[in-house]
């Protein structure tokens, strides 16, 4: 895609950019729900949007990329320690490359303990090493071209990716793939921790697809917040809820059983992709000039099925938690402080619609 065409396609989103140095902050509801918000990386020059996606390398470091500044040229692959309050000068390495798609951004996924990525708007799928070097995947997928957004399936280690062919299920070890759904314009891809439901943004809405059949299960309205990156919570009282990074500088929590989106953070610049930190269960939230980190607290993770860090339960703990709920006969949903009810008949501006 030519740069001019790309800018035209994203013009509406660019206009949503807020103050250059705005800072995301939790709302009272976000605090009540047990979320914490910290800064992972800052110091990017404010641009149309900043670095979009992160991956957790086998050695535990974080790989991320350049900000988009609207001019063709070189991009940069950075590697950082997995620690908060870093700046660009904290990078362990910074390697430049010439981007070929009119956009330096890499959509990135951590899958099966490895990092994979593809340049936005037409890049090939690649594997990243601990040094940040990246080489194209072999096999049938070498003919596929990415569009926007990808995620690692925590169940089978596959890559779920937006592409010009549609929503793809890629086995990175064999290079084979299948088309889950033919919608070619989706963004903000994620998958539920059980590997059964794929969520993606399209046209300002969040779509839910059945992973196995590709059937469209629900369409959730973004309610004018311009949703983008999404990540599903596993464990705890919010299990199954979807964190949504919105272009309008807010972060929402979407309850897929009621369609209600609660705003849990405000004051950002322009939210875009999100990426799971599979080592500790937190979620990276991209903004124009920084990457923030969202945690849902003890006993849960966001965007992955577990990990070894603080606040992420071991698989056995999750299993016992699930058995305990079943034994008590409890419903998954709960009454929240502030009056958010899980019962049928709740009216909301965000209503799920059947396929």
Characterization of the model:
By secondary structure, the chain is mainly beta. It has one domain (3-9, 23-354): Neuraminidase (6 Propeller), CATH 2.120.10.30. The chain has three helices and 28 strands. It has helices spanning 3-14, 28-32, 315-328; strands spanning 25-26, 36-42, 55-56, 62-64, 74-80, 86-87, 93-98, 106-111, 114-119, 126-128, 134-136, 146-152, 159-163, 166-171, 176-181, 187-191, 197-202, 205-210, 216-221, 227-234, 242-246, 251-254, 261-266, 274-277, 282-286, 290-295, 301-302, 353-354. The strands form six sheets. Strands 1-23-22-21-20-27 form a six-stranded antiparallel sheet. A five-stranded mixed sheet has the order 6-2-26-25-24, with no helix packed on it. The chain has a five-stranded antiparallel sheet with strand order 16-17-18-19-28, with no helix packed on it. A hairpin with a 6-residue loop joins strand 22 (251-254) and strand 23 (261-266). The longest helix is centred in the last third of the chain and has 14 residues, at 315-328. The chain is globular. The protein starts with a helix and ends with a strand. Residues 1-20 and 307-355 have low confidence and may be disordered.
Class from helix and strand fractions:
mainly beta
How many beta strands in the DSSP annotation? 28
Assess the beta-strand content as a share of residues.
35-45%
Widest β-sheet, arrangement of strands: 1-23-22-21-20-27
What is the H level of CATH, i.e. the homologous superfamily?
TolB, C-terminal domain
Helix content range: under 10%
Give the overall average pLDDT: 80
Number of domains: 1
The name of the CATH architecture is 6 Propeller
At CATH level 3, the topology is Neuraminidase
| SS field, number of helical segments | 3
Gyration radius (Cα, Å) is 19 Å
Largest sheet descriptor: 6 strands, antiparallel
Low-confidence runs of at least 5 consecutive residues: 1-20, 307-355
How many angstroms does the end-to-end distance come to? 30 Å
Name of the top-level CATH class: Mainly Beta
Shape: globular
């Amino acid at each position: 895609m030519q740069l001019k065409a790309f800018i035209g396609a994203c013009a509406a989103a660019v206009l949503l950019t807020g103050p250059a140095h705005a800072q995301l902050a939790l709302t009272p509801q976000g605090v009540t729900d047990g979320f914490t918000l910290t800064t992972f990386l800052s110091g990017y020059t404010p641009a149309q949007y900043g670095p979009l996606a992160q991956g957790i390398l086998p050695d535990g470091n974080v790989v991320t990329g350049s900000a988009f500044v609207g001019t063709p040229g070189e991009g940069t692959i950075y590697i950082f320690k997995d620690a908060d309050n870093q700046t660009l000068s904290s990078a362990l390495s910074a390697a430049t490359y010439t981007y070929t798609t009119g956009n330096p951004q890499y959509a990135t996924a951590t899958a099966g303990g490895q990092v994979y990525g593809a340049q936005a708007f037409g890049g090939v799928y690649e594997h990243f090493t601990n040094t940040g070097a990246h080489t194209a995947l072999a096999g049938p997928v070498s003919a596929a071209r990415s569009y926007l957004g990808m995620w690692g399936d925590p169940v089978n280690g596959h890559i779920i990716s937006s592409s010009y062919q549609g929503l793809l299920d890629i086995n990175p070890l064999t290079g084979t793939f299948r088309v889950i759904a033919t919608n070619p314009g989706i963004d903000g891809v994620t998958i539920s921790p059980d590997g059964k439901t794929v969520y993606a943004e399209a046209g300002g809405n969040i779509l839910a697809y059945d992973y196995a059949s590709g059937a469209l299960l629900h369409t959730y309205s973004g309610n004018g917040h311009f949703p983008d990156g999404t990540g599903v919570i596993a464990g705890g009282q919010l299990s199954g809820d979807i964190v949504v990074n919105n272009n309008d500088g807010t972060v929402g929590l979407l309850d897929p059983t009621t369609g209600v989106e609660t705003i849990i953070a405000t004051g950002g610049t322009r939210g875009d992709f999100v990426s799971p930190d599979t080592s500790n269960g937190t979620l990276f939230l991209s903004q124009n000039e920084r990457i923030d980190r969202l945690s849902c607290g003890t006993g849960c993770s966001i965007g992955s099925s577990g990990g070894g860090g603080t606040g992420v339960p071991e698989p056995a703990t999750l299993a016992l938690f699930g058995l305990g709920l079943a034994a008590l006969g409890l419903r998954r949903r709960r009454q929240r402080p502030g009056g958010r009810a899980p019962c049928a008949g709740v009216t909301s501006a965000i209503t799920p619609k059947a396929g």
